[in-house]
Amino acid sequence: xxxxxxxxxxxxxxxxxxxxxESTRYLHVDRTGDSPNITWxxxxxxxxxxxxxxxxxxxDQRLIARQIATGADDGIALTIEHDAQLxxxxxxxxxxERGVLKLIDxxxxxxxxxxxxxxxxxxQLIHVAKEADLRAVAAETRANNFPAAELLTxxxxxxxxxxxxxxxxxxxxxxxxTLFWYLPLN
Length: 186
Hints:
Layout: E1 2-5, E2 21-32, E3 39-53, H1 59-69, E4 76-82, E5 85-95, E6 100-108, H2 117-131, E7 136-142, H3 146-154, E8 158-163, E9 178-184
């Protein structure tokens, strides 16, 4: 297996990477107090039942991959191929106004997990961000995607913010809060 750039020939095969999220834990976000004196507490908790959630490539992610692969837009689109099949994908774009490299998507096919592939791709991303003199790598996860949170924490990312209504007005209740992560580089 080798990390390489996504090519236009790969674009139709990217949705075939099975990035199903499986977890028995989540990051519980608890809010106390009223504005402006709000306190947030985050802790690991077991899920009521095992989470098995499809994580399909969105239309926006497909467009970003296409733009990067064809050179129409700046960014990083990396993949790993194993036995003529794509095993992983990483998409990131620079946010120069903020001085960060934003991780758009990281997915590893179910059959190839727990082999260091995601870590390898993220280390490559961190290296690119350092070479570009950016101040941080940014990422977003949902509170119920515990494997992603665990990986980011392992690599030194810091949890820096939350959005309890990004996807609906009930994200906090549904344990689907959006979490913002940063890895400072300087």
